[in-house]
Fold this protein.
Amino acid sequence: MSKRIEVNDLNVYYGKFKAVEDVSLTIEPRTVTAFIGPSGCGKSTFLRTLNRMHEVIPGAYVEGDVLIDGNNLYGQGVDPVLVRRQVGMVFQRPNPFPTMSIKDNVLAGVKLNNRRMSKNDADDLAERSLRGANLWNEVKDRLDKPGSGLSGGQQQRLCIARAIAVQPDVVLMDEPCSALDPISTLAIEDLIEELKQDYTIVIVTHNMQQASRVSDRTAFFNIAGTGKPGKLIEYDDTDTIFSKPSVQATEDYVSGRFG
Amino acid sequence: MTAVAKTPTAIKAKQRPGDRVFSASTVFAGSLILVILAAVALFLIAQSVPAFAADPADIVGGEGFWSYVAPLAFGTVWGAIIALAIAVPLSIGIALFISHYAPRRLASPLGYVIDLLAAVPSVVYGLWGIGVLAPAVVPFYLWLTENLGWFPLFSGPVSGTGRTILTVAVVLAVMILPIITALSREIFLQTPRLHEEAALALGATRWEMIRIAVLPFGRPGIVSASMLGLGRALGETMAVAIILSPAAIVKFALLQQQNPNTIAANIALSFPESFGLGTNTLIASGLMLFVITLVVNSIARYIVNRRKAFSGAN
């Protein structure tokens, strides 16, 4: 299920403003890759170009290629809707659909793809996805209750269950723990470790300890100043980035001298 | 542990003048609405009693109050329901177009135009209905009876003037369209961006995003907006009085010459020439309209509250 992502010379624009400049990197299957960097450096913007979610913002467009197992996401005639079914996403704040029950939330994406599903299959898939997100034991007795009744950490795991229920190739996470308490954060981090067995995971985080705990590879983004585009400064194994980075700016950032 | 247990006294918050003034004025405003409602209800009930108590033979029609008011109540509800059936889907469509489909340059002028529709006096709608719409729809009505006449609602013979309950309902629908559209648009615009993005990130198309994120979120708002519209349709007087050619009957057919009248229009038409018991009867029919509106609103509130846990308000 998991796939390799290759990005070549990608520029991202919001209208005339160039938000991210000239990023090239390769993400291997079944790894966790963390994007770190100061606020506004374009890491979330770049993450969103990996499933074309940046297009939700009017005027946003990219130059360059994003290849998932060799298929260009920005090729002629590629439907962004189908891209997003392959590349799932978890957001900064937990966002289960408030009008749906826990079970319907998990199945929301699947129902879009495949309307006719027997009740047994639906139940199995909901259980599998919730188990996959380490949430099954907490919610198995209240699958028909609204998802908004769960705690923040549970809601975020519900969103992860919803994302993996459609069996994507890649799961993108945009600061998934920034609205959560430490215990819930730990639960999500453990989950990321398990999900790595099956999925390629890309995570944006402000928390450098988190990056060093969960990721195999780390990409450091930075901007020269406000109004300038964000750039990929260094991309290497997480151990290397945090112990002996090759660029001074990276070392300054990971050692807490700025950012 | 040996000390005598003191009775705990509640800690009192300091009373500030600003808080007091503000809370007193909200209490006043809140109770005023109840007082006004009670005053209207009392007036209606007091004036209606003679009509309820009267000998059935003395009531207009000679068969008592209930058989007098039943066709009127039916006409009121029937006309309003058809109007709502026309207006609600259309309003939701317009509201979604403005909130999610139209380019911004087009969206706000369109919103203004819709609001403008609400500012047209109902007598103007009535004149438009009888002068323009009624003659214009006759050929269409003829076509309906010819091709769909087997369906009881569209059975003939068609009214030659077009002044039927369906024409009234269309005019009522145009009148309630702006209020439902405006409120729905507001609520659709408030759909949390997070939920819309959640749907899109799952691979939803724009319509699927609207179906799983926007419409469920807006549902209570749509129900409330429809109820406001329904209230206006139930109580609308001038437009109905001008357009409809009424009869004291209960009939579902939409296109025929004889149509059930509505309570409000009947009061408006009959009140100037009424006296004594006739006036009481009309006011009693007004009381019925009051009750109908109350019941309809309670049902709507019940529907909204039933799924409160899923409303997204928490």
